[in-house]
Write a structure and sequence with these properties.
- By secondary structure, the chain is of the alpha+beta class.
- It is built from 5 helices and 2 strands.
- It has helices at about 5-10, 20-30, 35, 50-55, 60-65; strands at about 75-85, 90-100.
- Helix 2 (about 20-30) runs parallel beside helix 4 (about 50-55).
- The longest helix is centred in the first third of the chain and has 10 residues, at about 20-30.
């Protein structure tokens, strides 16, 4: 949860978006880029929806297209926007960082998100999962590695 982080760094926590409002949050953040210029916004969300949010925010790089492993509490996607000219186009860059919580325990999994209605594919965005399906199969009900 964000409360300890928010308290430590004197940050405001915005709870006005429901879990299923990931696309609305993304639209809101994109619209607020001019006002947020030079600021850092931390977003903590259900891992099943992180790829959808990243893609809705304009990221088309591989980490933003990959389904989030259920065991991954360590990875950060840092999207940075720059506008070189007032009123001009925005450039987006991606940094992938690790918090250093340690190695993942147990087998790789996407069980929590598979067939979850609040999941990236349900939001209209693809994500690639290269691991095994929830029944331990080889992902044969995937289409070219994209979860369907």
């Amino acid at each position: 949860l964000l409360w300890p982080l928010a308290q430590r760094y004197h940050l405001m926590v915005n709870l006005s978006f429901a879990a299923e409002d990931v696309l609305e949050l993304s639209r809101s953040l994109l619209e607020q880029r001019p006002q947020l210029c030079g600021e850092t916004v931390v977003v903590s969300w259900d891992h099943c929806l992180i790829p959808a949010m990243a893609q809705a925010l304009g990221c088309r790089e591989r980490p933003c297209l990959t389904c989030w492993d259920d065991r991954d509490y360590d990875t950060l996607l840092w999207l940075r926007y720059e506008q070189l000219l007032p009123g001009g186009a925005w450039n987006m860059s991606l940094n992938v960082e690790q918090e250093g919580f340690g190695d993942f325990d147990g087998p790789s999994s996407y069980r929590e998100c598979w067939d979850n209605i609040a999941e990236t594919k349900a939001m209209g965005y693809p994500c690639t999962w290269t691991g095994k399906g929830p029944s331990g199969d080889d992902g044969s009900h995937q289409d070219d590695g994209v979860v369907e």
